[in-house]
Amino acid sequence: MSEIQSAPPAAAIAEADVPWLSDDEQRAWRAYLRGSRALEVILDAELQAVGVSLAEYELLSMLSEAPCLTMRMSKLADQTVQSRSRVTHTATRLQRRGWVERHPAPDDGRGIQLHLTDDGLAAVRFAARVHATGVQEHLIRQMDPALFRSLGDAMDKVRTHLLGEQPANYNP
Amino acid sequence: MSEIQSAPPAAAIAEADVPWLSDDEQRAWRAYLRGSRALEVILDAELQAVGVSLAEYELLSMLSEAPCLTMRMSKLADQTVQSRSRVTHTATRLQRRGWVERHPAPDDGRGIQLHLTDDGLAAVRFAARVHATGVQEHLIRQMDPALFRSLGDAMDKVRTHLLGEQPANYNP
DNA sequence: CAACAATGGTTGATATTTCAATTATTCCCC
DNA sequence: GGGGAATAATTGAAATATCAACCATTGTTG
């Protein structure tokens, strides 16, 4: 984010051989940064109000959709774009609440399968309603469907670029 | 995020009186979640590599554009969508590095003006190049200009909804 | 002008995240 | 089959973020 635009220091202009952002790009990027931050803040707060953080919810939600309510730690980390370490810690906390269990992976001695318990399923079902409502209200309702589709397309390109080809709802 | 789609538990379907997400919405929302997370991760990592976190960079960058390189703590918090407490802590760390100074606000006895030092300005100028390059590479280059504009528009609507009317580059 | 609410900012305890090892297992390949 | 590289997950310490309580000042109201 260049400080050059609103207070151009003579020295800095000379070295403009790197792709600065144009005014329009700058504006769009700022809107993105602030909007996405605010969105995450409110969705997290709404979930916290019912006792789950957004990060926790994402894990639980992935699990709830997985076959047998079970998924490997590393896949969970990949799909939620969280570090392995973070998933480990979060899983430990969820386990303390009795929402998940750890089981050794049958096929790979190094692996752990995280399994959603009945209590966990109940919790995530409840949270899912809160979350879906929030997404509708704060994101989808704020624009017409075409624009929302564009948003999805745009972010899908970013996702693909950074994370590779798997589609948004890939499971195996 | 409803678990209903890929593993519909009979019980949950009955209580469908809340706005679940449609398949398309779900896909777009997932793309957004993962894409935005991945984007933040990489932009943060690129900045960390030159010694600044994204959160720190945002503060420094705002300061660098402000008149007299100076801004009130609370405005900084508002504009970066961070809590006041967080801004306080971050400012303290930046101060330890000699990048910002605190001065009492002339007009309001409660207020503090954060001022960017010369070292801070140098640091943010350097970081800005890294950041702008990352935004170009990972976001802008990944889509055609029209789509990027749509992205900006979409997030601007979200921002307005959640944060109010101020435009993305409002200063006073 | 006295009370009292609201604002601006800080503080410190607590919770979470990151980071750099560490362990165990599997994969590869000679 | 043995040795080393890669992968899966965990650990604990350090960095950072959140939360609630707090102090000082300002604004408001009667």
From TrEMBL, chains A, B:
PROSITE patterns: HTH_MARR_2 (PS50995)
GO biological processes: response to stress
Domain HTH marR-type: 25-160
Classification via Gene3D superfamilies: Winged helix-like DNA-binding domain superfamily/Winged helix DNA-binding domain (1.10.10.10)
InterPro entries noted in UniProt: HTH_MarR-typ (IPR000835), MarR/SlyA-like (IPR039422), WH-like_DNA-bd_sf (IPR036388), WH_DNA-bd_sf (IPR036390)
Molecular function as annotated in GO: DNA-binding transcription factor activity
Transmembrane segments: none
Protein name in the entry: HTH marR-type domain-containing protein
Biological source species: Flexivirga endophytica
